TrEMBL record:
UniProt keyword annotations, A-Z: Membrane, Transmembrane, Transmembrane helix
Protein name, UniProt field: Putative membrane protein
Species this chain originates from: Rubidibacter lacunae KORDI 51-2
Source organism phylogeny: Bacteria, Bacillati, Cyanobacteriota, Cyanophyceae, Oscillatoriophycideae
Regions of compositional bias (Acidic residues) in chain numbering: 20-49
Membrane-spanning ranges: 114-138, 158-179, 188-205, 217-245
This protein's record includes keyword rRNA processing: no
Annotated region (Disordered), positions in chain: 1-49
Pfam families per record: DUF2232
Superkingdom classification of source: Bacteria
Length: 266
């Protein structure tokens, strides 16, 4: 019977230690690691089954790109309304909608979007119709859209917004007269004064006034007529915007009580 060498290593002990070292060297996937991986995926906000675009729409405010697309769309709508009314005029139906898309851009996205919509509409019309008609749109209707959007966003009264818009519309009227006179080489304002003088002479005859209207009276009547026309236009624009923007979820300030009573509007 052979004797065991007491100095020789125990084979069973070496075998056990070797198995233990093999187990520690091999990577193992524990359930805890899987759970940590799932938790990390949940913290990142994307679970693999939902697209990043859907996640962006589901959480948080609209992105800057969405605001840019919306502003460009409203500017294009305003420019196309002007284009259609120029070549296929349906009367005064489309004129009341000239400043509303730009005002809506200001109302939804703020002053930068309003001015950008005005500029983009002007650039679009420059490409489609030329710079002259583009300038005639920007002044006054583009700037008027920015002014109306600012007033509606701040909740100003109808009286103030209509007065400011009428003043801007009158300035735009004289700007168009000046630009057209410059391009045609004729004084169109003098022609308009002749028409006003003829109307006043007819009115004096009907009233039995034996006098000729003075130049100051003729000019005053022309100025008043331009401003009253702008007031009526802005009042109709407010009525159309009240009906349209309430349905779009961007209401403007409430009209005076007498307008609510006339139109039975709550």
């Amino acid at each position: 019977m052979p004797f065991d060498d007491p100095t020789a290593p125990d084979k069973s002990r070496l075998r056990a230690s070797g198995d233990a070292s093999d187990e520690t060297d091999e990577p193992t996937d524990s359930p805890d690691d899987d759970e940590n991986w799932v938790d990390a995926g949940d913290e990142s906000g994307w679970d693999g089954g939902e697209s990043l675009e859907a996640e962006a729409l589901r959480s948080g405010p609209p992105s800057r790109s969405l605001a840019m697309v919306e502003t460009a769309f409203l500017a294009s709508a305003s420019g196309l309304i002007w284009l259609i009314n120029t070549y296929f005029p349906p009367g005064p139906l489309l004129r009341v909608a000239f400043p509303i898309p730009i005002a809506l851009a200001y109302l939804r996205r703020g002053p930068r979007a309003g001015w950008m919509a005005c500029a983009i509409a002007g650039l679009l019309l420059t490409v489609l119709m030329g710079p002259t008609r583009s300038v005639l749109f920007v002044m006054p209707f583009g700037v008027m859209g920015v002014q109306l959007g600012a007033c509606w966003r701040r909740g100003t009264s109808w009286m103030l917004s209509i007065l400011l818009g009428a003043l801007l519309g009158a300035i735009g009227f004289f700007f168009r007269f000046w630009l057209a006179s410059l391009l045609l080489g004729e004084d169109l304002w003098a022609f308009a004064l002749v028409q006003v003088a003829g109307f006043l002479e007819w009115a004096f005859v009907k009233l039995g006034i034996l006098a000729q209207p003075s130049l100051e009276l003729i000019q005053s009547v022309a100025l008043v007529a331009v401003f009253v026309n702008s007031l009526i236009y802005l009042f109709v624009v407010h009525l159309v915007a009240l009906a349209m923007l309430d349905r779009l979820g961007n209401p403007i300030p409430r009209p005076p009580q007498w307008i609510r009573d006339i139109f039975d509007y709550e």
